[in-house]
C-alpha cells in the first residue's frame, strides 16, 4: 500500500479481478483515470497469469495484489483491508467492485459527498443499470430457501401466480428504485462500506468463496448502521450470470447457501 497516496484518499475502491477481458479492462481503466485524488483504487487479481490484460491497472493503483490461486471475492477484499496501515488516517469508505462496471465522471465523488453527510450509513449501493440504461432490480429481501430455489430452478412460465407474487416480493420489484431506501440484501458488485464498520465486523466472512457473501456482509454491517440503496448516482453493470451457465459454479452456490443459513438460521419463505 502506498502510504502517501492513501493519506489523500477518502475512498479506496477495491476491484477484484478474475481474468477480465482486454475490453473490460480498457473500459474500467478509462473510468478509473477520471477519479479525483480523493478516491483511490486497489486491484486484487485472482488466479493471476503473467501478461494478462488486468496488469494495465497496476500503474494507477494504490495497491496491486496478485493471487496465484483463486481465494474468492470476499477474501480478496479482506487482503486489501489487512494491508491498510494500522497507524494514521484511513479512508472513510472502502468499496467492493467487480470489473464489469463503468460510470460517468463524478459518480463516486457524488456518492462520497452524500455518505460523508450521513455517517449513520454503514453500507450503500448506487443505482445499477444495464448498458441500455435499464435499472437492474438487484435489491432483495434477506435470503429464503424458496426465494433462492425459485429464481434458480423454476422457469418463469411454469410458476403459479402465488410464486410469481412471492418472487416480486423477494426481489423487491415493486419498490421505487429512484428513491433512497433501506434494503436487507444489497448487491456486492458495487458496494461502498464505512471502513471502521467493515473492520469492526471483521470484513467479509472468509468461508464464502462466492455468492451470498454480499447478503452476509449487508446483514453484518446492518449491526453498525443503515444499509441503503442509494440512487443519487448510477453505475453501468455489464452483468454476467455465471452460476446459471456452469454446474461447477452452481455447486459453489449451494455451498454458500448452506453456509448462509447455517450462520443466520434457516428461513424457508
pLDDT under 50 segments (min length 5)?
Answer: none
Structure classification: alpha/beta
The global form is globular
The CATH superfamily is known as Spore Coat Polysaccharide Biosynthesis Protein SpsA, Chain A
* Average pLDDT taken over every residue: 94
What is the H/E order? HEHEEHEEHEHHEEHHEH
CATH architecture: Alpha-Beta Complex
The number of domains? 1
Measured distance between first and last alpha carbons:
44 Å
The CATH topology is given as Spore Coat Polysaccharide Biosynthesis Protein SpsA, Chain A
Q: Give the number of DSSP strands.
A: 9
Largest sheet: 9 strands, mixed
Helix proportion range: 25-40%
- Report strand %: 15-25%
* Rg of Cα set: 18 Å
Q: Oligomer, anyone? A: single chain
Give a written overview of the molecule.
The structure is a single chain. The chain has 269 residues and is α/β, with parallel strands linked by helices. It has a single domain, classed as Spore Coat Polysaccharide Biosynthesis Protein SpsA, Chain A, CATH 3.90.550. 33% of the residues lie in helices and 20% in strands. The chain has helices at residues 3-6, 22-32, 73-83, 107-116, 145-153, 161-170, 195-200, 213-221, 247-264, and strands at residues 11-17, 39-45, 63-66, 93-97, 101-102, 121-129, 181-182, 190-194, 226-237. Strands 1, 2, 3, 4, 5, 6, 7, 8 and 9 form a nine-stranded mixed beta sheet that branches. The mean pLDDT is 94.
